Amino acid sequence: MRDLVRRIDAATPPDRDRAVDALRALAILGVVLGHWLVTALVVDSGTLRAVSPLQRMPELAPVSWTFQTLAVFFFVGGQVAAGGHASARARGATYGQWLRARLARLFRPVAAVLMVWTVAVLALFAAGAGFDTVHALVKLVLSPLWFLLVFTALTAATPLLARMNPLWPLAVVLYVDLFRFGLDGPAALGWINVAAGWMVPYCLGAQRARGRLTSRTTGWALLTGGAAATAGLVLVAGYPASMVGVPGAAVSNLNPPTLAAVTFGLAQCGAALLLLGPLRRVLARPAAWAAVALLNLYAMTVFLWHQTAMIAVTATGLLAGRPLPGLHTVPDGAGWVLARLAWLPVFAGALLVCWAAFRTYEQGGGRTRGGGRVMRVHRAERAATVPHA
Question: Taking the mean position of all CA atoms in its chain, how far away is CA 156?
Fold first, then answer.
């Protein structure tokens, strides 16, 4: 392990901004932990259904403020994509070559998830599982894929978005919300915000790739301005306090994104800018940097399989013959929260098994006889040198 850490650190170019990779890793971990904490599969008359502790415990809304980190991911994605596109053009690569290379790593692991769950659905129906149970499980697994579709579209539009002022998509979100909430417009208009809302942090990241948004003053302005705007929208305009969807709620801040979700994302981008300096100091330590590099190397595998890991633990727990606290029980009190926290290491262990089984799909290769360790070291070193999707 010490040799691997040393080799990753030595392979890292001196000009690589390790803090950007750390922000991406924190965003992925935020999404994973957030899903594990605000999603429960409850046994109800022989059927599994998904419920949220935020339904019965709205005081847990601050959990969503901590773990809803998608804006940071889009911010980092915009910066890396814009910088990568500029570098590719300087090398003489075409737009098509750059885009194919950028998207290939996104969709290889998706194919593996779809293949496995197609087989799983057929097996569940063959075993007599009800439609409601299968639907709840499949929805949990496939719902994160909306993020990839949006991210793909924004990536493809990077040459245009790199020159766009983030205020333009922010204005679109503002007017869409004003029309649908203030003027009782059709709710379907909100889906415009799926693109416009996440375009705001993506454009901010692209602006940073062009040498802007580099001062701490900008970070503080985004953090305080975004936080103040979000507080005003929640306290005065009546937007939900939770930054994730709550089943049964009349309005979701995330599905589709509202103005409150976008201003909250601006605050997160400001916090990310302020964290860059401290993160660089921490990541000067080879061990810390190796952990970040390895997580980035398999970020898509972690993202795509974390819900499957939770489902696998939940299904295995049914063998106990009774509902297990924090796993199958209704999330309605502090006892459930404590029990769920105790289950998180078990979910992580199941995710580690999924990672071991499917990590090669993300890198586009498999094990070679007698060369497995060499390939692992090579990929770890590549994680320190290649920009990640």
Answer: 19
